[in-house]
Amino acid sequence: MKSELDDQLCRKYPTLYRDRHGDPKSTAMCWGFDCGNGWFPVIDVLSELLSKHNAEVYASQVKKQFGSLHFYYSGRDKYTDGLVSSAQSLSSMLCEICGSQALIQTKYTGWFTTRCKEHTKDYSDKEYVELDVSKVAYLGFGKAWSALVLILIDSCDWRTEHNGMPATHLSITKEAGKLIVSHSGGDDFTYTIRSLHARFQ
Ligand SMILES: [Zn+2]
């Protein structure tokens, strides 16, 4: 990530990134934000929500891994887990270079990267995996909103199935040009990922 954006994050969230220039022996945060500029908005919103929730939370490593944002930190709870997991899902949809809608690209070497069409044209050995939004086609939304909603639904379903979260019923509508998501059931995690998605309409 370019230094202006790196500086901006450190200025806005000094406690969260208190180890940005720390000793490499004790923190990997000293290497900065090891990802492209396209993910800046995701990191910015994630940082804001984490800092507001608990001023004691601090990051130990922020990097791309397997085509998505990986955020390592201290001070976790259910709410922060939800935020970080949701930010990771969102990043996997956004081009790491420019932030446009992405297609995950798999190189034959096994190295994953996340790019839009424009930023994949220089690669030759590639396979694309497009997000299948047909499951939420009934909502009549465009591709980007459909992808957001799909990730939200899948995240909730996954938590219910694997982490014992109470089943969640989501109500998703469009009102006055805005995506409105309300829910019943679930837990802090549902509330968290809903809050994060609301920022990316
Ligand atoms: Zn791009």
Written overview of the protein:
- With 201 residues, the chain is of the alpha+beta class.
- It folds into 2 domains: 1-92 and 94-130, no CATH class; 133-201, no CATH class.
- It contains 5 helices and 8 strands.
- The chain has helices at residues 3-12, 40-53, 78-91, 143-163, 188-198, and strands at 33-34, 58-65, 68-74, 103-107, 112-115, 126-129, 168-175, 178-185.
- It has a 3-stranded mixed β-sheet with strand order 1-2-3.
- Helix 2 (40-53) packs antiparallel against helix 3, helix 3 runs parallel beside helix 5 and helix 4 packs antiparallel against helix 5.
- The longest helix has 21 residues, at 143-163.
- The radius of gyration is 17 Å and the shape is globular.
- Zinc ion is lined by residues 95, 97-98, 100, 115-116, 118-119.
Furnish the topology, listing elements before pairings.
Elements: H1 3-12, E1 33-34, H2 40-53, E2 58-65, E3 68-74, H3 78-91, E4 103-107, E5 112-115, E6 126-129, H4 143-163, E7 168-175, E8 178-185, H5 188-198
Helix pairs in contact: 2-3, 3-5, 4-5
Bound molecules: zinc ion.
Largest sheet: 3 strands, mixed
Task: Give the helix level as a range of percent.
Answer: 25-40%
Q: Give the integer mean of the pLDDT values.
A: 82
How many E strands? 8
Radius of gyration over C-alpha positions, nearest whole angstrom: 17 Å
Identify every distinct bound molecule in the structure, by name, code or SMILES.
zinc ion
Structural class: alpha+beta
How many H/I helical runs? 5
Strand content range? 15-25%
The rough form would be described as globular
